[in-house]
Specification:
The chain has 129 residues and is mainly alpha-helical. The protein contains four helices and two strands. It is 57% helix and 3% strand. The protein has a two-stranded antiparallel sheet with strand order 1-2. Helix 1 packs antiparallel against helix 4.
Length: 129
């Protein structure tokens, strides 16, 4: 099989979209449990994992960085955010106003990722014509 870099960006963008979807589920759980005593908010941090995987080489192109990304390392999961912190007496640390902002922000990010994936496939179609 021929190894090309044609799908490098698509693979990374797909992992980012998966992480954004997972974050949306975490935010939905946070909103649903806003009144649950002792509940601790959950979140997903894909950005720092991607940043670490891309590295900080100054004189390397983004194409080269993306081609060297190990996709298995881009698997992220949910974590408990500020597990020991709560400003409420019931031990819950979910702030509904913040969650609504996070939800809107994440939805915009997800739509942007889907548009980017679509654009990458359109670029591949253009090349094949």
């Amino acid at each position: 099989m021929i190894n090309t870099g044609a799908f490098d960006y698509i693979n990374v963008l797909t992992r980012a979209a998966d992480a954004s979807w997972l974050r949306n589920e975490c935010i939905a759980n946070n909103v649903a449990n806003v009144d649950t005593p002792g509940y601790k908010r959950q979140d997903v941090d894909f950005e720092s994992v991607l940043s670490k995987e891309l590295g900080s080489a100054r004189f390397v192109s983004m194409d080269e960085k993306v081609s060297k990304v190990n996709l298995r390392r881009l698997q992220v999961g949910a974590y408990v955010d500020y597990g020991g912190f709560s400003y409420r007496t019931d031990g819950n640390n979910v702030d509904i106003e913040n969650e609504n902002v996070y939800l809107a922000q994440n939805q915009l990010k997800y739509q942007g990722l889907l548009n980017s994936i679509s654009q990458e496939f359109q670029n591949l179609q253009s090349v094949m014509k």
